[in-house]
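Ticket 4471: requesting a sanity check on a complex prediction with magnesium ion. Repro inputs:
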Amino acid sequence: MRIERLRLRSFRNYEEADVRPAPGVTVLYGENAQGKTNLMEAVHLCCVGRSHRTSRDRELVRWGESEAYVQADVRRRDGVHQVGVALYPNEQKKKKITLNGDPIKRIGELMGQVNAVLFSPEDLRLVKDGPDGRRRFLDMEISQLQPAYFYALQRYARALNQRNGLLHELQLHRGDALFSTLEEWDAMLAQSGAVVLRKRAQYLAQLEEKAEEIHDALSGGREKLKLRYAGCDADEEGLVRLLRAAREEDCRRGFTSVGPHRDDYKIIINGKDARAFASQGQQRTAALSLKLAEIEVMREETNEAPVLLLDDVMSELDVSRRRMLLTRIGGVQTMITCTHLDDLGGAEYEKAISICEGKLNESVDKILRK
Ligand code: ATP
Ligand code: MG
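Returned structure tokens:
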């Protein structure tokens, strides 16, 4: 798939912008704080209906404005589609998402319309950092591929919120009535939680297959990469049992201590947990393998390559990893941000756009050949 046109109005530091990314590689370059990541964020918004940086939509509206609007024209195998997202600074006013001009009722309807894989410097720390980032990685990916997963996650988050609220009350005063309500929330949590667990296991197996092969190539055949889910291994009934077993402890602590919201997965290199034992370079290569595998899984599942967004990662990679990345992404529409064109290390691109204070300048529009 390919974004043919991206238009922004009052989005972040942009008053107006109209970009036509090239089918291949488009480079967006400029000094710090000029609006490069903001543009990536706008694409991400059209993919999943939210920012990758904040959960507060109002932050995306240009200061002093009453509405932000982002529109992406996407060419897919089944034709060109238009996704529009309008956001408001007032929290009472809900964002509006349209598909080919028609408002959608549930955000899940947006999933899969525009698929993108975003790769930023934080992703290079995927192996090293805590479980939150790794869970987010899984949740975002599976949601884009399967709206049913996204809906299950939403139901799970709502039930979790309610259960935690109740546990908090139970911390203060115990009562039989509260306990029976807890039972109800346990059932809700187990129902949606089991869907989440099942789909995560399926996705992780697909991801592992691709990542193993890519990592083998990136490491010159020296390293074998495996993924292992670390958390609940349970169906719906099993989750009910786990929640019940944790109930006393959860009441004491005032929150839910077991379930997919606490789970993690281990990245194993040559039989050892990479988070604990791999060197920084090995961890970064493993992160790169996972990101590239993500593209492959998406390509396989949707029969179409996603759009690749590389935000500031080129300067973070050494020459050989950079080359690996660029050779792997042939045929994928890619948007790369960097501060200087030199950061690309001589990589080919079709279009270069400079960004300065939220204004785009396409005057440097040329093709470099190696
Ligand atoms: P870097 O190279 O440091 O990553 P960048 O070009 O990616 O920089 P962005 O994160 O895209 O920078 O843009 C940041 C700029 O956008 C900042 O100057 C910030 O003040 C501005 N900004 C963020 N939100 C808003 C908003 N709601 N309204 C107006 N300006 C905003
Ligand atoms: Mg940035």
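Notes from triage: The chain has a mean pLDDT of 93. Leaving this open until the requester confirms.
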